[in-house]
Amino acid sequence: MPRYAQLVMGPAGSGKSTYCSTLIQHAAAINRSVQVVNLDPAAEHFDYPVMADIRKLIMADDVMEDESVRFGPNGGLVFCMEYFANNFDWLEESLGHVEDDYILFDCPGQIELYTHLPVMRQVVEQFQQWKFRVCGIFLVDSQFMVETFKFISGIMAALSAMVSLEIPTVNIMTKMDLLSPKAKKEIEKYLDPDMYSMMEDNSVTVKSNKFKKLTKAICCLIDDYSMVRFLPFDRTDEEGINVVLQHIDFSIQYGEDLEFKEQKEPDEEPDNTYYDDFFQDNEED
Fold first, then answer.
1. Digit-coded pLDDT (tens) for 255-267
2. Which of 165, 41, 177, 173 is nearest to 106 (CA)?
């Protein structure tokens, strides 16, 4: 039987560890086995047990304190991840060979690891060799996505990871529970965006013709190919968490090999009815 993995990615402060913690609690509530592996050598603490911790192999602080290399925070992190890529046997021993594993890999937040460096691609390829079905989870903080140009920047970061890793990816807006009712209503249009309308709405503020052309080209790419969509993630909403998990499970075909999953219902694929209810409730508030 296959094994399953979520590669939890996103900029620093986007809520990766909180996402893992929330899913662990949700899994316990529905009697489901989910494990977490920490792949961030600069992590400080987390409020859940981990199956394996990269800091037992190498720590970013130790690398930065080494006077022979004199790396800064970013260079130290890149060195750690490249060292990890050359020592996959450590992780293989830590994971064991249990079939039907479902593991969340909490990854570092430096975006260069997912854009122009090959290390995370090597990690994904190694997971696939270990018979993991891997889904990328790219998180962005909803509090910084309520303006069009910030939203486009977030989309480009997510798109860079998707193109680099070439795995099914679910993009998530985190910290929805921290938004005001007004911000929640405003952010609705960013979950399933009409890029052409958004571009026209902001055409007045864009004065450079070259910048207008570049923005238009990016918006056309995103809209024409429907390459990036976001799901809302509110850690206080069990129904919403379950909807997100359904989308992820569907992308990696989780449970298809289990006996009780053989009889599939016609509506098994997650739909978007939850989101209509989500925003309708916020409007009533």
1. 776 544 444 454 5
2. 41
